[in-house]
Amino acid sequence: MGLRTVEEYRAGLRDGRRVFVEGRRVEDVTADPMLAITVGHSAEVFALAARPELRDLFVFHDPDLGEPASAYFRIPRTAAELRARGDLIEENTRQQRSTFNITKAVGTDALLALLVVAAEVDRELGPRYLDRVRRYRDACTRRDVTMALAQTDVKGDRGLRPSQQVDPDLYVRVVRRTADGIVVRGAKAHTTAGPVVDELIVIPTRALGEEDREYAVAFATPLNAPGLTMICRPIVTEAASTFDHPVSRRNIEIESLTVFEDVFVPWERVFLCGEWQFAGRLATTFATFHRYTAVSYKPPLGELFCGAAALAAEYHGLERAGTIRGKIARLAMYPALIRAARLTAASECRFAEGIAVPNGVYSNAGKFYFASQFHDAVALLQDVAGGLVITGPTEADLRHPEAGPLLEKYLAGAKGVSGRQRLALMHLIRDLTASDFGGYNLVVTLHGEGSMDAQLLGAYREADLEGHKALVRRAIEP
Ligand SMILES: Cc1cc2nc3c(=O)[nH]c(=O)nc-3n(C[C@H](O)[C@H](O)[C@H](O)COP(=O)(O)OP(=O)(O)OC[C@H]3O[C@@H](n4cnc5c(N)ncnc54)[C@H](O)[C@@H]3O)c2cc1C
Fold this sequence. Notes:
- The protein is α+β, with helices and mostly antiparallel strands.
- Helices cover 49% and strands 15% of the residues.
- It folds into two domains: 6-277, Butyryl-CoA Dehydrogenase, subunit A, domain 2 (Beta Barrel); 298-475, Butyryl-CoA Dehydrogenase, subunit A, domain 3 (Up-down Bundle).
- The chain is globular, with a radius of gyration of 24 Å.
- Bound molecules: flavin-adenine dinucleotide (FAD).
């Protein structure tokens, strides 16, 4: 099939999927006033791949298929190819007003993890999954699909294991096996982009014991499978002004609670079913790839913050003030250190099943750093920008024949900066840091790709503690 167009992608979403938002059933996600915005955001990945100057980054010749394909599907075999994957994610984000477009990144993170872990399962337990995963990956590449990934179970009592919960459906599980496939029940939380993609990959959220074997399940499903329901969070509507909401009105993801009420999955789409010993390995291998994706998509937002602070300083006539320069310098360090973690995670990768796997310490450290420092970065930007970030009137006021000239005159900045220019910048900063979307950014930075505790566990697991302890032993030798 080859590379798809924006229109082909949009047409594929009109498939009768069951989606709810703000209490209404959405018949066509491409026509809904809220969901259409996130469809437009997701569609950009196809538009960007069609731009000649971006083609080398977004498109590659797939040797397995013998045809051009989205570079997201490239299996990184070397550190350089892993780095190129990070470059792709970073540039895609930069092109979309520094907002991550998850629709090809997260699914391919999952495919890479499945390729690694399916090979391990097959080697240890006999052939069962690797061929299926390869065939599924090739089909996704050929169809040029978009994908979401559902890992986070709703989890009920976090202190109990899946099989100990009062309701056995609080983690997704297999309820029936048939000659043709399996039937799954349960719900996954916070599925980004589920309502606007072609395929959903589901994997376990944690390590499991033998008593939890029915929860050790990984599979892929189309979003219109009978029994699958997505209930979304709300976002801005198409009626919102792009002046007042410059980013979130055009570039925004959507999340859903994704419910599986006895969804049938044919065997060729089942990638783990009962092999509880591998649930944790799949969960953490995916997390490593996905945190590498995280440290790839975050720098452009840091750059936007830094640029907005530098421009605000100019508009205020304060670009020479030492105090302001110090804050801008700290904002410049934020994306630089995240990118440093990303580049090192690629150059210090390990190889599993011939696939370059990002270094676990650097990808966890980078994600932990950007999550733990993000609120400080927001504070620095808001500090430099001033109170107009939250007190600025709207585009409608600017357009009003009486109010508009007053805003132009009294909100003017240094060196001829107009009231409109200054307001536009303040609305950008509000949108990113002090609006509904700004609040979303605060929370997604903490919890997206796993909570900070998950990164600490990952870094602990991957760190060379024995090597470090040996260093101490040598240091204290008499
Ligand atoms: C905007 C957004 C988008 C997301 N997109 C996706 C997605 O596309 N797909 C997907 O699968 N997930 C997605 N996530 C989920 C994300 O990975 C989780 O939010 C994260 O793992 C935390 O899980 P939780 O939200 O259930 O919080 P909780 O599990 O309720 O965690 C709350 C706190 O409790 C701690 N905690 C939890 N359990 C324990 C325990 N047993 N012992 C000690 N401490 C514990 C956590 O570390 C955290 O500090 C997304 C999240 C957000 C916010």
